[in-house]
Amino acid sequence: MSDNTFSYDVIIIGSGAAGMGLALSLPSHIQIAILSKLNMSEGSTYYAQGGISAVLDDADSLDSHRIDTIRAGAGLCHDDIVELVVSHGKASIDWLMANNVQFSTNKNIRSNNKLHLTKEGGHSYRRVVHADDSTGRAVQTALNEQILNQSNIKIFEHHNVIDLVTSKDKKTGKKRVTGCYVLDTKKDVIFNMKSPCVTLATGGASKVYLYTSNPDVSTGDGIAMAWRAGCRVANMEFMQFHPTCLFHPEAKSFLISEAVRGEGGLLLLPDGTRFMPNFDKRAELAPRDIVARAIDHEMKRLGIPSVFLDISHRTAKFTKSHFPMLNERCLSFGFDMTKDPLPVVPAAHYTCGGVMTDRNGLTDITGLYAVGETAFTGLHGANRMASNSILECLVFAKQASIDITKFLEGAERSSRIKAWDDSKVINSDEAIVVSHNWAELRQFMWDYVGIVRTTKRLQRAKHRITLLKQEIEDYYSHFHVTSDFLELRNLVTTAELIIDSALLRKESRGLHYTLDYPNTDDKNFKKDTVLNPSK
Ligand code: FAD
Ligand code: SIN
């Protein structure tokens, strides 16, 4: 039995744009721990390509950004949250620049080195600020440097948070967070961290699918932990598939940015025919749900393994200067995007649903916040518009920082939290169960809960989840936990939330498309799907 407790004013689980943004926005007298499953850069933020949306062009307007977001969200965006986020676009970009993020500027002398704005699906104007095609790397690297200079912030890399600890608030009788249990994966020891305020900034859950653009850490841990602790989650059926990931056995669904289409890239069938104009008048720049579904439709109709993305009509100089990283990575897989169309397929990319929060990032539990992709704020509705995610991370990091600062002034501090008890478990001799179940889960989620769904397929998936849950509970009560096991446990919980939400939505809307209910039913379903663990 271990009683090894660390104590902080604020614990932030996750070191991406949301976690780093929050830590840097809190006042420097607050003692902060940031935990990260692998190294501090390893999360979706680092891999972001296209950019961050913000209204900076004189011809553009906040109203247009707001309308585009709501249109992409297929009727489910919360107007007040959309307003909040889009109105903080410029301030968020200014904040990043003040923290040394270097964005691409117009190379043209007459433009006064203004920021270069690119375009992506659903946006009516050029409003995507970027650092070439490696925006996330520029953001993550600059924020890491700032964090490492702050003496009030301690980073714990290679630390996997297992679960939240809660108790009853003496004053209000409400549940409040008091800390978390943490597995130090390098030393293989479990210890407690104590704090009146914990923020989940754990990113998304796209690893629940066999093919995903996301890094390995995106296993829905924050959503699963919050659910186990008693928080409501919403809109989990809206898993976004990015239309264009490189089709190559070794590319691990490497993303080809939507900005390639924004700069003129066309989607083609193997015989060179363009097909997107048959599906939407915005063609290649329709919102992602529409483009991914069109590609899926054409691949199934023609029995082809991929479609093609072609930007070879632009000059090689243009392509190399706008997409240097993509050009280099594609060459390493044997494709020259300046000359040839790239084979592309859709892959799981973004979790639109998540832990329900208010406009300050606060969840149902006192002291527990959720920010970034793990949260459900109401911004994205049934389909996130491109480049609205990092913006959401930053806006809610700021909102949460103000609320947390006030909250800490009167927060009740726990004297002690119960130590992790592993006296009754042994080391596993059955690691194969974990790897087998990981593979099985991701395969059936891809086959049964993907871009096109049916009730029967969802029920099949639900049946398999029930079996997996039993095996996981059995494993959990007998064996020492490992990172792989913890991730599997969280993925299974998240998968069940996705399936249950999808079964409840008996219509098609945004990213949820089912052959059994192919139409949108505003009368009965123009509302969020809210799941409550206490019901
Ligand atoms: P992440 O950046 O994913 O960070 C999650 C953090 O949580 C990591 O540090 C991880 O280690 C930690 N963590 C998770 N679980 C635990 C645990 N149990 N214990 C401890 N730590 C844990 N969005 C845009 O707006 N513009 C883009 O151009 C763009 N391009 C993208 C390209 C790619 C390839 C991908 C994958 C996504 C892209 N997105 C883009 C989406 C966007 O990058 C993410 O939604 C956003 O960066 C999420 O930030 P985050 O801080 O919420 O999570
Ligand atoms: C991309 O560059 O296509 C990703 C943008 C996003 O997910 O917002």
Structure characterization notes:
The chain is globular. It has helices at 17-25, 44-47, 62-72, 79-86, 89-98, 135-148, 221-229, 258-262, 288-302, 316-322, 324-332, 389-410, 431-448, 455-478, 483-504, 522-525, and strands at residues 5-7, 10-13, 32-35, 52-53, 117-118, 128-129, 153-156, 159-168, 175-184, 189-194, 198-200, 233-234, 239-246, 266-268, 307-310, 342-351, 354-356, 368-370, 375-376, 530-531. The two termini are 33 Å apart. Helix 7 (221-229) crosses helix 15 (483-504). The model has no long low-confidence stretch (mean pLDDT 95). The relative contact order is 0.17. The strands form five sheets. It has a five-stranded parallel sheet with strand order 7-3-2-11-18, with helices on both faces. It has a four-stranded mixed sheet with strand order 1-10-9-8. The chain has a four-stranded mixed sheet with strand order 19-17-12-20, with helices on one face. The chain has 16 helices and 20 strands. Among the domains are: 45-154 and 365-409, FAD/NAD(P)-binding domain, CATH 3.50.50.60; 243-347, Succinate dehydrogenase/fumarate reductase flavoprotein, catalytic domain (Flavocytochrome C3, Chain A, domain 1), CATH 3.90.700; 431-521, Methane Monooxygenase Hydroxylase, Chain G, domain 1 (Up-down Bundle). The chain has 535 residues and is α/β, with parallel strands linked by helices. Bound molecules: flavin-adenine dinucleotide and succinic acid.
